[in-house]
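Can't attach files on this board, so I'm pasting raw text. These are the components:
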Amino acid sequence: MPTTHDIPTNGRPPALEARDVAVFYGAAQAIQGIDLVVPANRVVALIGPSGCGKTTLLRCFNRMNDLIHTARVEGRVNFHGKNLYDADVDPVQVRRRIGMVFQKPNPFPKSIYDNTAFGPRVNGFKGDLDALVERSLRQAALWDEVQDRLGESAQDLSIGQQQRLCIARTLAVRPEIILMDEPASALDPIATQRIEELIYELKRDYTILIVTHNMQQAARISDYTAFLYMGRLVEYGPTDRIFTNPAEDQTEAYVTGRFG
Amino acid sequence: MIPHDLAARPGTGPRREARGRRFAVLCGLATAVGVLALLVLLEDILLDGLGVLDTQFLTGFASRSPERAGIRAALAGSAWILGLTVAIAFPVALGAAIYLEEYAPRGRLTQLVQANIANLAGVPSIVYGIVGLTVFVRWAGLGRSLLSGALTLTILILPVLVISAQEAIRSVPRELREAAYGLGATRWQVVRHQVLPRAFPGVLTGAILALSRAAGETAPLILVGAVGFIAFTPRGPMDEFTVLPLQIYDWISRPQSEFHALAAGGIIVLLALLLAMNAAAIILRNRYRDRR
Amino acid sequence: MNAEITVKRHFHEELDALQELLLAMAGKAERSVDRAIHAIRHSDLSVAAELRNADPEIDDMETQVDERVAGLLALHQPMASDLRFVLAVAKVSNDIERVGDHAVNIARAVRRMRKSPPPPEIRELEEMGLIAQEMLADALAAFVARDPESAQRVRATDDRVDNLRKSLFRIMVSYMLEDPRNIGGGLEILLISQNLERIADLATNIAEDVIYLVEGRQTGAGARSQADHDAGRAAEDEADEDDR
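---
Top answer:
Structure tokens for the assembled complex are below.
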């Protein structure tokens, strides 16, 4: 039974709730028995050694595991009280409201403008696309650097800029929740710092769930931290408590570097 | 004085070098053999055929007299049949490839289909000729027409086309699809906006190569009704026709040596055509690769 | 997965070395206290000079501890119990250094008393000294053993020392009122008792640091400010709600 410190939800309903979530790849079980409550407008970090299932869990929240043929998801993921895995839920709509930023920046081979506009376009956006693109690029702290070269190819940007473009692209569809899978692991320290600052600012308007293998990063930017090991949720609580006085011995051993 | 552990070990340095050089030489010889064989063939052809190439040759119809004979009908026929084949085969192959890669459920049935396509690619072309004869000429009642020929060539190159289109689609990086899905795109939107544009150069290259094979096919077309002696260019898909390889074959079979020269001339034209198509494929492939 | 194996990093060896330094420092301070109590009992005037020469060494060691703590924090970013350990060491070394200072003060007071008539046998003073010494030893032992229950017992003993000081105060006031010539000596006695009480307080601090180290919770003066902090956080969360 994992230790869950009381997660205050500020009197608002949680942004996301995982209840007894399990994932199988064919016959092999990747994660099991996950109960997790993500409060609104907070940053929740998922940490744990390689292979512990944190990315698998993250992808449960926007039904990206559907794309893997052998994957099977059990349990419930509640979003606004509705289980995302109900038969009448359209995964396409889920992904519009729960966006994702990936580990390796993956801009489309198109212009900066078209990259940012892709999401709104495929979702049938009818309004002022220019304004939306600008707003998204501003929110991603990229506008100043690209405003006079929106027509250039996104591949010409530096890797740190590309990742911010990917964030802008995700913001353009105006999701409520942003899932980030090790967003800074391919970046140098300065670029990493900019992404971390960005996450801190985005917290005001979005809820963010971030997978990271960098404990110091989790400590720096998250409000709550969940520690996973071998597919199970070992401990979940406020970040400062997890890193100064964790309840579980396994958590203690991991954060002090005694294993992993 | 080189420090002790950096100096080559006695006896191994020069020996390893020599072995490496020998291997390189062998590889060079192998390449030379292939190139040499080609050159020998070409030399023969060129000697015989270059003299024959003139406007009369290119614009004249086949005739019983060698001086007046030309490849006009054959060229037109080849052009028609390639055009028809592309028009039919390309969409079908692309559709099949998209379905197999993006939509088909991963199951035994799909695997069976996949395996069969691979097998079909290796079937001798004469078999396709027989199928074409039975199905298109007789059953469908299309007779000995361009359409029968084009349909026969279609089923001939379809397996190869599908496989190469599948390869091109498969080579689109997973990250690109995931990013598109992550933004709430439907499967069709992902295919249309991300996968196809990215895969298209590869598909095109594969198509051109498959077509260049089709351009050289003779046996199945004989079965389906291409005739050796035609004095008109086709005006519609139901017309009778001939193709360049067939014309060459026809001339070679005649006893007079003048016709042999004509055949050589035809071969040169055919080779030039094939070279042009392959070069186009390579240029296209390189251009899109550099764009990335 | 090899994750079950406990890895001893070179960082953990540095933590061990830090503890050894701290304990060496504590040993010297304990010895100073012992000598100071000896000075009281036997009116040994030479102890003052002895301790005055020995004290700088304790101060040096505190500086060393501080430098190592800063280095460990900057370079290794320790977490959880490692972090609490490093912080506890910094606090304990500070307390130990002050224990040393109080021992010096006691020895000096003893030396100044030679000008006054000898005071009567003061049972309370001796008892205070013994208890303070014991508390110090027990607190340090609890630190080494990471034993919070021992530490709690040390905390509980502090009251006895306080009570002894209060009764000593009453006794000394009467003593000084008896005869003005007693005032000099009486004041020194009171000074000594204050220093002994401070040593007991410092031992209590060390005990509270042990509890923080093992259980991660603050006790004593620190706990009050923690409660304020939590109340502040709850208020912040409420303010967030109002913003929506």
